[in-house]
Amino acid sequence: MQELRTAAEVAEVTSDLMVRWAAQALEPGYPHERGAAWRSRNAVVVFAPRLNRADRVVHAGDEDDVVALLREVLPGLNGQKVRLLAAAPLASRVSERLGHEVLATFGWLHLDAAAPQGPTPEVEWLTGADVPAIDALLREANPGSYLFPDDPGAVRWAGIRDTDGTPISIAGDSWPAPGLRYVSGVATHPAHRGRGLSTQVCTFVTRELAALGAVTLMADADNEPALKVYRGLGFRYSPISASRG
């Protein structure tokens, strides 16, 4: 087993974007306890404390190698209530062999095309003065959001304003990793849905973030309106599963 000490070392041994996203926990400035990462044969495992609201153990590689590596590193994390996260087929097989419970299957999406170029004249980066309105909008329009303004992973917010200046459609740039950006906290006020506002905001954010690296996000498998927007922007959907021992 080899310990990997930086996100760059993780990127050298895997092309899996979700593992590389989790490797932000190895970098200076990560807002929580520093994480850890390991490689053995054709398996890579990253432990990222409190990443996107959970202590995550993200893994990729050949099934046998992943199982062997997890059996070696998980006992050292016994004090943590970790969530294992991986591509759905691998996660299912690994969980069965380790006796873990699969909690949910949802989607990991990454931009797999040129950055979208649709018109977004109404979208802008919001300011600190907008934080209370952003928080209120999320609590009304998307209370289950994994990102709120007080989250340490929130970097900045883009949005469209109503005529009185209040944000009515938003999306967050959050939890950035070296070479990767992550979109979360997408919401549109119920009174303003059906106007394509989320598409405009997500087009703007995706285009801005694509200039900085790969663009990724997560979405529920049954959220067809959101998935239609993301696919229209050039995102590719891959099923992933979370499990717990």
From TrEMBL:
It comes from the Bacteria. Residues 121-245 form the N-acetyltransferase domain. The keyword Zinc does not apply. Signal peptide: none annotated. Keywords: Transferase. InterPro entries: Acyl_CoA_acyltransferase (IPR016181), GNAT_dom (IPR000182). Gene3D superfamilies: 3.40.630.30. Transmembrane segments: none annotated. It holds the Pfam family Acetyltransf_1. Coiled coil: none annotated. GO terms for molecular function: acyltransferase activity, transferring groups other than amino-acyl groups. The keyword Repeat does not apply. This is GNAT family N-acetyltransferase.
